[in-house]
Amino acid sequence: MNMRSLSIILPLMLGANLVSVLPSSSQVEATFEFAPMISNFAPSGQRATQSFLVTNTSKKATAIQIKMLKREMDQDGKEINTNADDDFILYPPQMLVKAGERQTVRVTWVGNAIPTKELAYRIVAEQLPVDLSEVRQNQGNATVILKILFKYVGAIYVVPPNVSSNVTLESAICQIETDKAGKKDNKLQLTFANQGTAHSLLTNLRLNLSPVGKESNPIKLEAKQLTGVNGENMLAGSKRRFSLPCPAGLPNEKLSGTFEYDRN
């Protein structure tokens, strides 16, 4: 019986609200750690420089690269990232960290010193393809060798003074929608807008909905009924559109709505 061997380089992304799937994740341990994963920068002064720590938890030297990305989000929640290295000075941007050792990375904001709103970025710490960790798995007559590249993706906010969020429910409507397979479902479409100057997480979201003009007896939705909306990040100046099953008792028409959430 012939055996075949296939090598695959597989990136593994680690970070808040980020999910990566491995054929057998229990076989994989991160080769390094990166912290903190969330950091607020001031646009000028002492807090315009922050320190991050890379820790090699493996038994081999690990090559790491740090980069910065601008972070935006479209209405459907797709994150849009563009290069932002010109807005920051990274030292060092690349490093070889010996087994069991640590390396401090200093990051300095050199962009606009007087932004009018909070600015959102990603900091990415990724392993470079040198002496990669391997996971071997047998699949029928083939042996698959997965070479794992670890990547941490953190959240960075450049926060000027006196910024605040202002999230509003722009529209709510129940209507029939047809999916790509041609199946029709009764969906509740919600559009939230953050008209403020700082991000906000829709934590523990509670929503009251009723037909327009009949607000005295609303349908009340708790956070557990708002999966896919609850906990979502509303970046400063952004707009988000969500679709979920229309609750029983609501007609297929435009709705009146109020909401509350635990502000961060």
Sequence-ordered SSE layout with sheet pairings:
Elements: E1 4-14, E2 32-35, E3 38-41, E4 49-56, E5 62-73, E6 79-83, E7 88-91, E8 94-97, E9 102-109, E10 119-127, E11 133-139, E12 142-158, E13 167-178, E14 184-194, E15 200-201, E16 203-211, E17 219-221, E18 233-234, E19 239-245, E20 255-262
Parallel strand pairs: 1-12, 3-12
Antiparallel strand pairs: 2-4, 4-9, 5-6, 5-8, 5-10, 7-9, 10-12, 11-12, 13-14, 14-19, 15-18, 16-17, 16-20
Helical region count?
Answer: 0
How would you sum up the major sheet? 8 strands, mixed
Categorize the overall geometry.
elongated
CATH C-level class of the largest domain: Mainly Beta
Q: On the 0-100 scale, what is the average pLDDT?
A: 86
Low-confidence stretches: 1-10, 16-26
Instruction: Give the proportion of residues in helices.
Output: under 10%
Q: What sequence of helices (H) and strands (E) makes up the elements?
A: EEEEEEEEEEEEEEEEEEEE
Strand segment tally: 20
What value does the Rg take, in angstroms? 23 Å
Number of domains: 2
Q: What is the rounded distance between the termini?
A: 60 Å
Protein name: Molecular chaperone
Domain Pili assembly chaperone N-terminal: 46-144
Pfam family, one: PapD_N
Organism: Pseudanabaena frigida
Summarize the structure.
This protein has 264 residues and is mainly beta. It is 0% helix and 56% strand.
Task: Characterise the protein shown here.
Keywords: Signal. InterPro entries: Ig-like_fold, PapD-like_sf, Periplasmic_pilus_chap, Pili_assmbl_chaperone_N. This is Molecular chaperone. This protein has 264 residues and is mostly beta strands. The protein has two domains: 155 residues, Immunoglobulin-like; 96 residues, Sandwich (Immunoglobulin-like). It is 0% helix and 56% strand. The protein contains no helices and 20 strands. The strands form five sheets. Strands 1, 3, 5, 6, 8, 10, 11 and 12 form an eight-stranded mixed β-sheet that branches. A hairpin with a 7-residue loop joins strand 16 and strand 17. The protein is elongated and about 65 Å long. The N terminus is likely disordered.
